[in-house]
Design brief:
single chain; alpha+beta; Glutaredoxin
């Protein structure tokens, strides 16, 4: 399998975390976002959306990070992060969909303005209105997750699952994007547990 990704993309990080945790034989192929490699005909033939990540497994090509992590888990015999039981899997899926529809896009408002635009100047200067919108919308979502984590170690099923990797990936830019989540004690304790995992350590980009 080949995973096309970028190390500072939180969507990519989601897939990289799962691949590393499962110990899958995956070749990681860096896509040069700053120079527009994701918009070239070659890459668009893999993902017509022009975004990372994209997974190639033989003749099968898959994009969308949440679909990719589900696929990766389903290819790993004996994995325990994506339950086979219908109700347990639905519980994990609930949080994947919450992340995809609510949490990640809202945090993404701040990540785009405070991180992506610094890395890619052609995107223009930060938009104060978008920053204000992100700062208003993210705290209630973070507070809800914080409350959920008040009496549990992991997000779903009382054990490490895809839900933890999916949501933690969004928080990789907490400091750089100044995400308003640092006052959520239970969320921060959970995030520290994820950051202590080997998969997270191996997936963290080296700092200059």
């Amino acid at each position: 399998m080949r995973l096309y990704y970028h190390p500072v993309s939180s969507n990519s990080r989601r897939a990289v975390l799962v691949a590393r945790h499962l110990g899958l034989d995956v070749a990681f192929v860096t896509v040069d976002l700053a120079n527009g490699e994701h918009k070239t005909p070659d890459f668009l033939s893999l993902n017509p959306n022009g975004k990372v990540p994209a997974l190639v497994d033989g003749a099968f090509v898959l994009w969308e990070s949440y679909a990719i992590i589900q696929y990766l888990a389903d290819t790993a015999p004996g994995q325990e992060i994506y339950p086979k039981d219908i109700a347990a899997r639905a519980d994990v899926n609930r949080w994947l969909f919450w992340s995809a529809y609510h949490f990640a896009p809202t945090a993404g408002l701040l990540i785009k303005e405070r991180v992506s635009k610094k890395l890619t100047p052609r995107l223009g200067p930060p938009d104060p209105q978008e920053i204000a919108r992100g700062e208003a919308l993210l705290p209630p979502l973070a507070a809800m997750l914080d409350s959920h984590l008040a009496d549990r170690q992991w997000i779903a099923q009382d054990r490490l699952t895809l839900a933890d990797f999916a949501i933690a990936a969004t928080l990789m830019h907490t400091a750089a994007a100044q995400l308003p989540v640092t006052d959520c004690a239970h969320l921060q304790a959970w995030f520290a547990r994820v950051q202590a995992l080997d998969a997270w350590v191996m997936s963290t980009p080296a700092t200059p």
